[in-house]
Every structure is written in C-alpha cells, then in structure tokens.
Amino acid sequence: MTERLTATTAPYTIGIPPFRPGEDADFGGAFKEQPGDLWRPDPATCTSDDTAPHARGLLRVLNDKGEAKGEWDPKLNSNELIQGLEYMMRLRIFDDRMIKMQRTGKLSFYMRSFGEEAVAIAQTMALENQDWIFPSYRQPGAQFVRERDMVSMICHCIGNTEDNVRGRQMPVHYTYKEGRFISISSPVGTQFSQAVGVAMASAYQKKDEVCISWLGDGTSAQGDYHYALNFASTFKPPVILNVVNNQWAISTHANLATGGRTFAERGLAYDIPSFRVDGNDFLALYSITKWARDRASAGMGPTHIEVYTYRAGAHSSSDDPSAYRPNDEASCWPGGDPIQRLKDHLMLIGEWDEEKHEALAQKIDDEVMAAYKEACEFGDLASGPYPPASTIFTEVYETVPWHIQEQREELGK
Amino acid sequence: MADMNMIKSLNSALSIALKEDPNVVIFGEDVGYFGGVFRVTEGLQNEYGPHRVFDSPLAEGGIAAIAMGMGLNGLRPVAEIQFADYIFPAYDQIVNEIAKLRHRSGGEFWSPVTIRTPAGGGIKGGHHHSQSPESQFTHTPGLKVVYCSNPYNAKGLLLASIECNDPVIFFEPKRCYRGPFYGDPHNVPTWSGHPDADVPEDHYIVPLEQARIVREGSACTVIAYGTMVHVAEQAIKDSGIDCELVDLQTLVPWDRDTVVNSVKKTGRCVIVHEAPKTSGFGAEMSASVQERCFYHLEAPIQRVTGWDTPFPHTTEWDYLPSPQRIAEAIKKTQEE
Description:
The structure holds 2 protein chains of 2 kinds.
Chain A: E1 5-8, E2 14-16, H1 52-56, H2 78-103, H3 117-125, E3 132-134, H4 142-145, H5 150-158, H6 190-204, E4 211-216, H7 223-235, E5 239-245, E6 248-249, E7 252-253, H8 266-269, E8 274-278, H9 282-297, E9 303-308, H10 329-332, H11 338-348, H12 354-376, H13 402-411
Parallel strand pairs in A: 3-4, 4-5, 5-9, 8-9
Antiparallel strand pairs in A: 1-2, 6-7
Helix pairs in contact in A: 2-3, 2-11, 2-12, 3-9, 5-12, 6-7
Chain B: E1 2-3, H1 6-20, E2 24-28, H2 44-48, E3 53-55, H3 60-72, E4 76-80, H4 91-98, H5 101-104, E5 114-119, H6 135-138, E6 144-147, H7 151-163, E7 168-173, E8 198-199, E9 212-215, E10 220-224, H8 228-239, E11 243-247, E12 250-252, H9 256-266, E13 269-276, H10 281-293, E14 302-306, H11 316-319, H12 323-335
Parallel strand pairs in B: 2-3, 2-4, 4-5, 5-7, 6-7, 10-11, 10-13, 13-14
Antiparallel strand pairs in B: 1-8, 6-12, 9-11
Helix pairs in contact in B: 1-7, 3-4, 8-12
C-alpha cells in the first residue's frame, strides 16, 4: 500500500497527498500484491482474526497480464464475464453522454463513476435479486444490473414529468424500488448505518436477504460509518459494508482523512471480517462480495470491505481536479482501468476481440442516445415540462395535512 | 379501566403495539432488560423477547439510522432517545433522512418510525436533562410532532403515533410521568385518583391533529402542551378569570379548528411553553392566531415561555413558566 505521507509533525501533523499539480504521478509501478497471496477462508466459519492479512494486503484475482489466478477466482463463465463488461461499458458510455449533456446545459449537474465502474456492477452481480442496494452517489451502475430502463434514469436526471422522484432531487440521486435500490441522499454516510437497520429487518423477518452499502474514504470519518460498524458488530445482521477508497474526497486526499493504516483494518477492531480488495479488478470484487453474501446467508453477519480504487474523474460536474492533483494521475494508477482489465482478460481467454468491443460500444452509445431522445419527449431542462408544482406538496406525509393544503392553495397550482 | 400513571399508560400502549403487530420492535439505551431509566419499557423484553425489545449501543445517531432502515424494510420501529437533550446526534438522521424519505423517493420508500423521548424540566436535571426541543422538529417538513400531557392521552397518542405511517417525534413530559405538576415543587401529587389517570386497559387511540379542551371558558384562551397544561390550569384557577384551556397534544399538524374557534370565542390568547421564547412553537401559534383571528382579538397575544437562556439547575423554578407568570399574562389580556 501507499504509505501515508506527512508534511510536518509540528505543531501538529498535516497529511499531504502523494502528488500535486506539476509533479510526476509515480505510484511505483504495478501493485506488489499478487493474486494468490491471500487464502480464501470458509465464509461460514471464518473469524475476523483470520482476515487480518486480508485487511492489510490486497485481494486480487486478475494479474497484470490479465490472467485470473488463485483460489479467489470466481470461475465465471464467458457469458457472465461479457455481461459484466457490457454493464461497465454501458455505465461509462452513459456517464460520458450525460456529462456532455451537463456541459451543454441540458442537465443541471452530473456525477460520473469513471474508473470505479466495477464497484457497484461486480458487487451487485454477485448478489441475489432480493438483496437490498443502499448506494451512495457513485453506485448508479447497480441499476443496470437490476435492469432499470435508461429512459427512466435520464428522466430523473433531467427532472421532467417522468422523473419518478418528481423533480425533487438533484440528478444522480436515484430511487428504484423495483430493483431494491434505495433512495440516494446527499448527506454522506447516512445510508451506511441505515443499511444495518435494513439488514436487521431482513433478519427479523427471517428472509434470505442481505443489504449492501457503500461510502467513500472521506466519508468514513463520519459518525455514521462508526455507528454502522458498531451496530453491525453488535447485532451481526446480514450486511456488506464497503469503504470505497478512491483516494479523493473532492480535493481532500485519503492521507488527510485519517492517520490510521488501511481502511479495512478498522473493521478488525469491531470483530468484523475485513478485506482490502483491488477495486479495479472485476473478478476480485465479484468474488469477495459472493463470499460476504455466503457468510451473511449462513447467519454469520457482516463483512467489511475496503474497495481500493481511484476516482479517475472529477468529483462532480462542479469540480476541477486539475487544481489539486496531476492531470495524468489516473493513468498512472497501478490498478489500471477496470473495463480495460476485464476486456484484456476476455481477450486473453479467447472470448472477446476488438471488433466485438467496438461493435458493442457503438450499440450501447446508440441505445443511450435513443434513450436520451425518448426521455426528452417527457420534458427537457430548458423548457420542461417539469412535474406539476402540486408535487411540491405531496408525499411530504402519507396524506396532505391541512397546513400544507392551505399553502398549496396559496400557490394556486 | 385502571388507575395508571403516565409511565404505566405508555407501557400499556407499547405492550399493546407489540402484541397486535409482530412488526413492532422497540429499542434504545437501557430499554431492554432494565426497562428504561424511567421504567416505561419495564417488563416488555421479558414478555416479548430480546429481539423485539432490546438495548442498543449508546449512539443516538445510530439508533435513528437503524430505525429508518428497519422501517423502510417492513418493520414499525419505536425507538427511545433517553432524554430529548440527547436527540441532537440523531438530528441529521431525523431531519434529512427519516423526515424526507417519502418525499425524496417519490413515495417509493417511507419509514414509519416513532421516536419517543422524555422532555422538559422540573426534575432538577440542569441544562442537559431538561430541554424541550420541540420547535427544532416542528420546523422540519415530514415529521409529525406530538406532546402528551397525561396518562390517558399519552397512551392513546402513542398508539396513534406507532400506527401512523409517517414518522412521529413523541415528546413525553418527564415531570408528569408520576403525577401532574401544578407549578409548586413542594407539593407534587401523584396521578392516583386524577380523572385523566383513569385509562382503558385495551387499545384506543387519541387521534393525531386533535387538541383537547381541558376547561371551557369565555374570557381568554390559554394554549399549552406537556407539563405546562397543568401549570396553566393552576394559573387559571389562581387568576379567577374564566379561561378556556387548550392542550394542543399534536403540534404538527396542530388543530386549527379547535384553536381558532376558541380564540374567536374569547377574543384573547395566552400561549405557554417551557422552551425558550425566540422561535419557539409559541411564535408559530401567535402568528397563526393573529393571521386567523385578528378581527376577533381584543388584546395583544401573550407568550409565557422559558427564557432565551440555557436551562438552569437549582434555579429552574425561576426559569419555567410559573402559575404566577401565566396568571399575570392572563390578567394582562383583560386590561385592554
């Protein structure tokens, strides 16, 4: 792992990121950790102590040549691998189109998952359809796995008449109940501790369900992160708690976010099996999540995962990373690019080629553009139509109370 | 019917909720084996099991968060925050999350959480065991806010809150757990024999959004809730003025018709609460009464409240509205 750097220790310690604009981004080449370094304990009997090496190491399946190695290889068939690649490509192409729409004033705001496409997609693919997804804003890709229609997603981002949350939330704050994808909210980390409650309710009702949630390295400083780990440790519900360490919380590098060692290791103190996984390795992510689900399903409770990755894009459409990090930092990341790595693997095993890749990319792009055009039929940002103003007053409560009804009448719409 | 104090009637409500709905779960600090620091959940864990009534780790933010998660996944959680003064670590979860879930998700998700919390002064609790933070929540769209005042309405309002599909913040005036409080700390009766302590043992509800006319009168409307209902009752007696006393019971949504009709009848209004004056719920009541009853008002509306200071320890009787202060305010409304 990259050691924490400090600028000064007096009068107190201030962390610094590895590189600033103008400096060479050099992470020292490839990861030294290799697939096969870490054994795969039995999920039904594993203790948190068994995972101490996993919390300090880096769980990988795909090596730098694109080969799948070691006992964590989930042995997915080629259809599953191609499906995973397709979802990741879809998310990236969708994001690229949407950020262009934002830049041309057609969306008020946008956030890409660039560089982190594997996270929600591999992890959701490893779960069952009845499992609950409690995302932060960088896991919209789970919706593709749960087969959400892109038109519906874009209608939400525009905030038009077909936005299922009726123009109430900023773009990317999706809700998708049919896919058990729980409403995203802007205050960071709140979903993490709520996910423990969701999982407790599943356990209480004796349902074979798990709840998965994510937050970022920066957000892991919030109380909600620690509430979640402590409540999960205390009640041992079927929950999978992921810290997506993408190095950056807007402009604040992980080195400034904690004086601790790996984020994964924190889970050991709560007696929760904890793993640090290569977040750009689709197979490793799939495998650890499947392991965590098997453990939860066996009644053994929570798993804590640090997803070690890199935020290749800006935090959001309102952010400019060139002000705080070298522009080429993403391309120097030892974990590479998650889509490229799965593509390389598929090509290596003879299941994929450039021609198929380009054809698929084109097909997806055409579908995204068609979906965008269809979504605009329900209203665009500049001229609407938007949801009726009456939706300001509805669903605040189950029924509209008198004081809100009076205010609606005052607006006269 | 049985003679119950407020602790017993709240316990009865919780027991009925647990019995009638298998999805009701109760948790909070010390509420399980011990039965709560005020004994409101006494015996419930023994009767309904450790998975339905349990002690949580000492983290109000975590308590509110798991309540929201449980509620959106089919349960009907009743969480206790041990003192209302300690609700603030849960404030983000309540205000940004629990209150907003239904609206922000277009009605796809909602969480019928009830948060019970003892509030108010008069127990020598100093600043951090005496506050009455209701207006911090009445200012939050998406929450219903309830404040009981006696054993009868405590039980009926709590059952209505638990059965409500909206989140409810349920304030319990801890000064009145074991008896009504008439403003004299040297003479504190128990609930025994009080008409409002005659509580049905079976299920009943007191509907949310309904105020209660404690005493009919013609000269002035006194609006109060919680402990101040009893203090105001004493003040009315002391003043010798024929006041109508309204116990709001539910602050959001408050009972417009009862309040407005009363003030239109009496032409005068005094509002009493123990929370600080500035931006207190009395400000909302005063503004609303003025908007709706201006041409019926014969005198300026009076507010009798706690001071805009932190709540004190040994000097709390000079902080809380007393019968004397309330009586003076009532008399003032008669001078115009």
